[in-house]
Design a protein that fits this description.
Shape: rod-shaped
Distance between the termini: 108 Å
Structural class: alpha+beta
Number of strands: 18
Helix content: 40-55%
Number of domains: 3
Radius of gyration: 60 Å
Length: about 525
C-alpha cells in the first residue's frame, strides 16, 4: 500500500493535507470532551454537596426544631439540648466533616481555628493553614485570600483559604461562653479560616484526549511507514549510486582505453556528442602530412624484434606528442608511416592549417636529430631517418566502413599525393606540394624539384623541398649527419672545456683529411 501511495505523489499529498486538516478537528473534539467531563464532574460534585447540606439541614436543624415543643435555641452543643440547633461555627465544622467524608476526592472543605472550644478536640493546622491564619490576623482584611498550588506530574491541587471574621453577635457569644478559650474577642478579629481544596488527578483526564491520541497514533504510524519507505528508497538509491559509480568507473576506464586508438580531437568530438557514430563523410580542404622511415626494412634486419618494437614505439610516441602539440589529427600508423592532417574536426583556415603542419614537420625533423644521437649512444648502428611530404587539397573525411566497424579517415588523390611527395624527399627532408608552398612561401625557403605525375591528377606537379630545416638565428649547437662513409653527431652544449679541446682537435684532423691532407701532418694556419 505504501509503495502504491509513494508512486502517486498526488495521493500522498492528499493524505498529508487531510492529516493537517484533521489536527484542529481532533483538538476541538478533545477540548469538547474535556469540557464535558469537567462540567459533569463539577455538576456531580455540586449536586452531592447540595444533597449532603440538605440532608444535614433536614436532620440537624429541621427535625430537631419540629421534634421539640418548646422554644429552640442555637448552641454549640446542640446535640445535648432538646430542640437546639447548631450555631454557625458548629455548622461549618460539621459541614466540613460531611463534605470531607463523602467519598469524593475532587473537593475538600475545612473550617478550622487554633482557638477551639475546650469541649472540642484541638484542630491540627498544617503549614499552609497556620501561615494563612497568621497573615489574615496581621492584615485584618475581610477580603484577603490565601492560595497554594501543589502536586506532581500526574496530579495537581489548589488550596484557597479565607478568614472567618467575628461580628458583634459572635463576639458577645464567645466572650460570655464558659467554654470559650478567650473572653476578650473584638469585632473584626479573625476567629479561624475557611479552606477549600480542589484536587485534580491529571491521569484521569488523559483519556479525555482520546481523539488527539488517535490522531497522533495514526500520524506516528504514517510517519513510521513513511520513514521505512524513505529508508527503503535510500537503500535503493545507495545501491543504484554504487552501481552507477561502478559503471562510470568502468566507462571511464574503457573510454581511456578507447582514447589510445583515436586522435584526441576525434575522441573529444565523439564523447562530447559533436559527432555521431554513423557512416557519413564530408568534403573538406585539408593539409595532409605523410611521413615514412627510410630503409626501415633494412634497419629492422639489424635489430632484435624486441629492440625494434621499443625503438619504433619510442619514435611514434615522440612524433605523436609533437603532432598533438601542433593540433594535428593523427589518422593512423601504417607500418612505420604516419598519416595526419589539419582542418578537421576543427580548422583555422587553409593558410593557418598549412603553416601549422609545416611547423609540426620541422619540429619533428629537429627532434629526430636529437633522437638519432641518443640512439647512437645506445648502440643503434643505423638510427631511423624520416622523409616527410605535405599537400593541401580537398579530401573526403569522415566515418568509412560498415555499421559494425568504422574507421575515421580521409580518402582522395590529395592524400596519395602527400605519400608520393614523402617518397621523393631526402632523408631528414620535407617536400611540399605547390599549394602548400603557396601558403608558407613567405616564411620558409624551398627549392623546386623535377615535376612529377600522379595517377588521378591531371598534369605535372612541381614539388618543393624545404631548406634550412635546422637553421636558426643562433649558431647551431647540434650536428647530426650520416652518409656512406660519414657518421657525425656533435652536441656542443654537452661538452665541457676538455671535451671541447678534444673535439676541436678531432674535427681539424677530419677536415684536413677530407681536403686531402695527411692526418699526421699538423694543420695549416687558417686563412
Amino acid at each position: 500500500m505504501w509503495l502504491y501511495t509513494a508512486e502517486r505523489p498526488w495521493l500522498l499529498g492528499t493524505i498529508v493535507a487531510l492529516a493537517l486538516a484533521l489536527l484542529p478537528i481532533a483538538v476541538w473534539m478533545d477540548l469538547k470532551n474535556l469540557s464535558d467531563r469537567a462540567l459533569t464532574v463539577q455538576a456531580r460534585t455540586l449536586n452531592r454537596m447540595l444533597s449532603d447540606i440538605r440532608g444535614y439541614y433536614a436532620t440537624n436543624v429541621v427535625s430537631r426544631v419540629q421534634g421539640h415543643d418548646g422554644d429552640s435555641i442555637a448552641a454549640h452543643d446542640y446535640a445535648d439540648i432538646p430542640g437546639a440547633v447548631p450555631i454557625p461555627a458548629t455548622l461549618s465544622l460539621e459541614l466540613g466533616d460531611v463534605i470531607g467524608t463523602s467519598g469524593e476526592e475532587e473537593i475538600g472543605y475545612r473550617f478550622v481555628s487554633d482557638s477551639a472550644f475546650t469541649s472540642r478536640a484541638a484542630h491540627r493546622l498544617d503549614g499552609f493553614e497556620r501561615a494563612a491564619l497568621a497573615s489574615f490576623r496581621a492584615s485584618r482584611d475581610p477580603g484577603a485570600v490565601a492560595t497554594e498550588i501543589a502536586g506532581s506530574l500526574f496530579e495537581r491541587e489548589i488550596r484557597m483559604a479565607v478568614p472567618v471574621i467575628l461580628g458583634q453577635a459572635c463576639v458577645s457569644c464567645h466572650n460570655n461562653h464558659p467554654l470559650s478559650p478567650k473572653h476578650d474577642w473584638q469585632v473584626g478579629d479573625v476567629r479561624g479560616i475557611q479552606a477549600i481544596t480542589v484536587h485534580q488527578p491529571i491521569a484521569k483526564n488523559l483519556f479525555s484526549f482520546k481523539y488527539l491520541f488517535f490522531y497522533f497514533a495514526g500520524a506516528g504510524a504514517f510517519g513510521i511507514a513513511l520513514t521505512g519507505l524513505n529508508w527503503r528508497q535510500a537503500n535503493q538509491f545507495r545501491r543504484m549510486n554504487s552501481e552507477l559509480e561502478e559503471a562510470n568507473d568502468f566507462l571511464a576506464s574503457v573510454s581511456m582505453k578507447i582514447s589510445k586508438y583515436l586522435s584526441p580531437q576525434i575522441y573529444k568530438s565523439i564523447f562530447s556528442g559533436e559527432k555521431d557514430v554513423t557512416i557519413s563523410t564530408e568534403r573538406k580542404k585539408l593539409t595532409i602530412f605523410f611521413s615514412d622511415i627510410k630503409d626501415f626494412t633494412e634497419t629492422s634486419e639489424h635489430l632484435q624484434p624486441e629492440e625494434l618494437t621499443n625503438l619504433l614505439n619510442e619514435y611514434f610516441t615522440e612524433m605523436s606528442a609533437i603532432a598533438h602539440a601542433h593540433g594535428a589529427t593523427v589518422d593512423k600508423f601504417i607500418g612505420d608511416a604516419i598519416l595526419a592532417f589539419f582542418g578537421d574536426p576543427h580548422t583555422r583556415g587553409a593558410r593557418e592549417d598549412a603553416n601549422a603542419c609545416l611547423d609540426m614537420a620541422m619540429a619533428m625533423q629537429r627532434r629526430m636529430v636529437e633522437l638519432k644521437g641518443e640512439w647512437r649512444r645506445r648502440g643503434i648502428e643505423k638510427p631511423f631517418e624520416v622523409r616527410m611530404g605535405i599537400n593541401t587539397g580537398y579530401c573526403n573525411v569522415g566515418n568509412f566502413g560498415s555499421a559494425d566497424r568504422m574507421d575515421y579517415t580521409i580518402i582522395g588523390a590529395e592524400a596519395n599525393l602527400a605519400a608520393r611527395l614523402q617518397h621523393i624527399a631526402d632523408p631528414g627532408g620535407i617536400v611540399l606540394s605547390y599549394e602548400t608552398w603557396a601558403h608558407v612561401r613567405d616564411r620558409v625557403r624551398a627549392r623546386p624539384l623535377q615535376p612529377i605525375t600522379l595517377k588521378g591528377i591531371a598534369g605535372e606537379i612541381v614539388p618543393y623541398a624545404v631548406e634550412g630545416i635546422h637553421d636558426s638565428d643562433a649558431a647551431p649547437a647540434t650536428f647530426n649527419e650520416a652518409e656512406s662513409g660519414l657518421s657525425l653527431f656533435l652536441d656542443v652544449d654537452r661538452l665541457d672545456a676538455e671535451a671541447r679541446r678534444r673535439a676541436e682537435t678531432v674535427l681539424e684532423k677530419a677536415l684536413h683529411a677530407v681536403r686531402g691532407a695527411r692526418p699526421d701532418k699538423p694543420p695549416e694556419p687558417a686563412g
